[in-house]
Amino acid sequence: MASTSSTSTSISTFIPQWKYDVFLSFRGEDTRFNFTDHLYANLIRRGIATFRDDDSLKRGEEIAPELLKAIEESRFSLIVFSGNYAGSRWCLDELVKIMKCRKEMKQIVVPIFYQVDPSHVRHQTGRFGKAFSNYKEDTEEMKEKVRSWRSALTEAANISGEHVKDGG
Fold first, then answer.
1. What is the distance between the terminal CA atoms of the chain, rounded to a whole angstrom?
2. What are the phi and psi torsion angles at 160 (to 5°)?
3. Residue 73 and which of 7, 25, 102, 104 are 20 to 30 A apart at CA?
4. Cβ atoms < 10 Å from Cβ of 75
5. Which amino acids are annotated catalytic?
6. In this predicted structure, what is the pLDDT of residue 8?
7. Phi and psi at residue 121, in whole multiples of 5°?
């Protein structure tokens, strides 16, 4: 029987309470009105509580705290890597948070490679490499951010996932 006392719980016995079954990470301009819409609709139809950000963030803005909280409150994250994914700082910051939750909270992460080669994600080549050439690493903070983005992309691309070549 669970105790209702206010004694501290060790991290090893902490069981998170998930608000969402799935957090969907995707680049809106690439997949919002095709693949991601179909995926989201099918998840909802099957009774799977799915978080999908419907607000478009203005260029240069930080990720909203509510979005970071939604990532933490999700049991799974589905990352839809598409051609322009790495061109979005927002998507990359989201990815870093997802990979942190994978390590610290044992969140299950499933990458979906939508019309992109997984090796381009893993090694930041092709369109992923081109996106990184646009990031100016002129401060230590930005250098660290780019390192964390590259690391998260490599780590995520090393997870067994789905490769979708066609369909929308």
1. 49
2. -65, 130
3. 7
4. 17
5. 94
6. 44
7. -70, -50
Q: For residues 18 and 75, is the Cβ–Cβ distance under 8 A?
A: yes
Q: What is the dihedral of CA 109, 114, 119, 120, to 10 degrees?
A: -110
Residue whose structure tokens are 């490769």: 163
Helix (H) or strand (E) holding 20: strand 20-26
Yes or no: say if 25 and 80 are a contact pair by the CB < 8 Å rule: yes
Q: 79 to each of 29, 111, 114, how far by Cα in Å?
A: 15, 5, 10
> Are 138 and 146 spatial neighbours (Cβ–Cβ below 8 Å)?
no
Q: What does DSSP assign to residue 84?
A: T
pTM value is 0.85
Report the C-alpha gap between 51 and 83 in whole angstroms: 22
Q: Are 67 and 48 in contact (CB under 8 A)?
A: no
- Cα separation, 19 vs 50, in Å, equals 9
pLDDT at 93 over 90: yes
Higher confidence at residue 4 or residue 116? Answer: 116
CA 137 to each of CA 15, 142, 147, 149: distance values in angstroms, whole numbers, following the listed order: 39, 5, 10, 12
